[in-house]
Amino acid sequence: MLVSDRPSLTAIASVGPTAADGRLPLIGLDKAEMAALAVEMEEKPYRGTQLFHWIYSRGARSFDDMTDISKVCRTRLTDTFTLERPEIAQEQISEDGTRKWLHTFADGQKAETVLIPEDDRGTLCISSQVGCTLTCRFCHTGTQRLVRNLTAGEIIAQILVARDALDEWPTPKDDSRKITNIVLMGMGEPLYNFEAVKKAMKIVMEGDGISISRHRMTLSTSGVVPEIERCGEELRINLAISLHAGTDDVRSKIMPINKKYPLKELMAACAAYPGASNARRITFEYVMLKDINDSEADARALVDLVKDVHCKFNLIPFNPWPGTPYECSSKKTIERFQTVLTDAGLTCPIRTPRGRDILAACGQLKTDSEKLSAKERRAQAEQAWAEKDAQLG
Ligand code: SF4
């Protein structure tokens, strides 16, 4: 019997926490693992392909929906496995249409996902960790401790939940998409959870799975230099770098990871990023912080810094959060900064902040919902940064 085979199902054990009723999650298994599972169930391997298709391409939430699988097999699957998604603890819709979901996973941990709808695309920003080890000073998530990495299943489940909510599972008559792009830019540093991220993104790319092209997927990193090349070679998706400064002096103050991987190493990794070209440029994210990184001298330093990299910039007006020590640069300052970059031939749109009213904008995600005053939050942030910096060395 399958149940007695459980200990041998190591792939499934790595997918995510077991459901409350003891059943094992299937979301997060790739095609080869599903085929192996079918064989363990004494079924033909193509059953695994059918399962894969039903789960990721059709969005099946119950084995009973899988009408081309025998009833006996469906019953066995139902007895042992689950297709349950994380619970939606909260859903918020911004006045600009941005949607944010707070998910509760099987072990009670929480992470957020944000959908940014635009006229010609829908970008889903997903999380890779609960909390974050890093302490980027402008980022709300950076004040939260790292609780754990998300599993591949939990990373993919964020996409499934969003597709459920948008009712965008394809039908024979309608296969239009509201989610066209995926960005790993939510909570956490994806390159510190690369194996799970890689597995999840490969499932997303599969033609008979979620089927989103690698050209429409972007991984954003704070600059974990040793993993950048792997990302380019093994995933071949677009790369975004949270840059935010043109000198080591400024960057190390607002992004302590810069002390470990300084700009020279980071730029060398970007210049060598597999697949980067003029047609496929690396995106440098640059948050505009008043009197911190927004002078014309800062802009000129940036121009010099990125001269060997195929790149473009996104200038992001800072999105405040409760307790932050920073303010957003003025519109005039941002435009002056942009002019320096543009005059040097760099593409650098100023991003329109999205979802600010629901704390869904860049750098605003955090799953702790304690009610604290701004002063208390600031004190809490400083304490968290000090503790995490001490751990980082
Ligand atoms: S910007 Fe990213 S890496 Fe930095 S603290 Fe926030 S979530 Fe972590």
The secondary-structure element order is HEHHHEEEEEEEHEHEHEHHHEHEHH
N/C terminus separation: 51 Å
Label the structural class.
alpha/beta
Described by strand count, sense and barrel closure, the largest sheet is: 9 strands, mixed
Low-confidence stretches: 1-8
- Total DSSP helices: 13
Strand order of the largest sheet: 3-4-5-6-9-10-11-12-13
Mean pLDDT: 89
How much helical structure, as a percent, in the residues?
25-40%
For the record, the count of structural domains works out to: 2
Question: What would you give as the CATH superfamily of the largest domain?
Answer: Aldolase class I
**How much beta, percentage-wise?**
15-25%
Task: Describe this structure as you would to a colleague.
α2 crosses α3, α6 packs parallel to α7 and α7 runs parallel beside α10. It is built from 13 helices and 13 strands. The protein is α/β, with parallel strands linked by helices and 393 residues long. The termini are far apart. β3 and β4 form a beta hairpin. The chain folds into two domains: 80 residues, DNA polymerase, domain 1 (Orthogonal Bundle), CATH 1.10.150; 306 residues, Aldolase class I (TIM Barrel, Alpha-Beta Barrel), CATH 3.20.20. Helices cover 35% and strands 16% of the residues. The chain has a nine-stranded mixed sheet with strand order 3-4-5-6-9-10-11-12-13, covered by helices on one side. The protein has a two-stranded parallel ribbon with strand order 1-2. Iron/sulfur cluster (SF4) binds next to loops.
